User: Fold this.
Amino acid sequence: MIITYLNEEKGMGIRMIQKIIGVIGCGIMGKGVAQRFAQHGYKILLIDSQNDILEHAKVEIEKSIQIYGMFNREQNINPKVVLENISFSNDIAELRHTDIIVENVTEEESIKEKVYRELDGIVKEDCIILANTSCIPITKLGSYTSHPKNVIGVHFMNPVPMQNFAEVIQGYYTGEECIRLTRELLQDVGISCEVINDSPGFVSNRLSHLFMNEAAYLVYENVATPEQIDNVFKKGFGHKMGPLETADLIGIDTVLASLKILYNEYEDSKFRACPLLKRMVEANKLGRKTGIGFYEYI
Amino acid sequence: MKEKIRKFLGKFFDESSVQDGDNIFEKGLVNSLFAMQLVTFIEKEFDISILNQELDIENFKSINAICSLVQSKIDG
Assistant:
C-alpha cells in the first residue's frame, strides 16, 4: 500500500509517500478518482469550491461504492470504511501538506489555468500533480506552475472505479521521477497505463472525437440513425459501445468543448465540430446527464 | 414496466434472447460497468430512489427481479 521511492538527489534515502491524496473537482471524474483510491485504502481530501456539490458528492459516492461492492463481492468492500477515507472541503489551501494531487476540474483551459496558478502558491515544492484532462496539453498546464517537472497527465477512463486503464502523458518538462511515481501509484490501485508523449487530445481523444464527430455528421446528414451507426461499431467492428452512445455517456457539451480545443490547438478543419452537436448543447440535449441526447433515457 | 426495462437492456445486448427469469449477469451479458447505468435508469424511469440496502444483486439479476423491486417501491 505505501509507496516508497529512492530520492537520491536529495540524499534522503528511501522515503515514504504520505497516503493522503488531494482530489480537486467533484464532477464525475473527481468522484470516481476519490472512490477508486479510497477503496484501496488511501486517505482522500476531496476539494470543490461549492458546498452543495460536496454534499451531493458524498451521497453519490456512497451509492457508487455500494453498487461496485454489489458486483465485486469477493473484495468485501465496506462502504462505510471507504467513505471514512474521504474528507470533503471547500478550501483548496488544505492541500498544502499533500504529496499527490489529482486535478479534475472542468475541461476548460481558463478554469484549469486559474487552479494551477493557485495551487502553485499552496502546495509543497515536490508535490506531484496528476492532471486529469482529456485534451489540454500537459506542457501548457505545467507552464502555469513553478515546477513543471512535477506535472503529469493522467487520462482516467470513466467510470474510474471500474476501468483499469489510464493514458499517462508526459509533458515536455515532466520528470522521470514523476513518471515512475505515477506508474507505481496507478499500479497500486489496479490501473495499468501507457505512457505517451504530449499532444492535444493525446491518443484516445484524437481518435475517439473524430469518430464521435463524424458519427454526428452522419446523423446530421440523415445518412443513418444513431442506432444504425452504433450498430455498425458494435456488430461490425466488435466495439462494446458505439460512438454516439459514448458521446451521450461523456456528455455532448464535454465532447463539443474537447473538439473546440482540438480545433484550436491543431488549426485543422478535421476537428471542426458538427453543427448538430452545437444545436444539441443549446437545446440542453447533453446525453445521459439530461436524460436526452442522441438517445432518450427517460 | 417490463417492456421499458427490456428496451433499456436492448441497448446492451439482444434482449429477445433473454427470458424474464434469466440471470443476465450469470449469462455474461453484462458486467459491473453496466450496473451504475441500470440503477440510474431505474431511478429516473420509475421516479423512485433505491436505498443502499436494496443495492443487492438479487434485485437486479433478471427482468423479473427488477420488476419486483420497482413494483415494491411503487407500492410503498
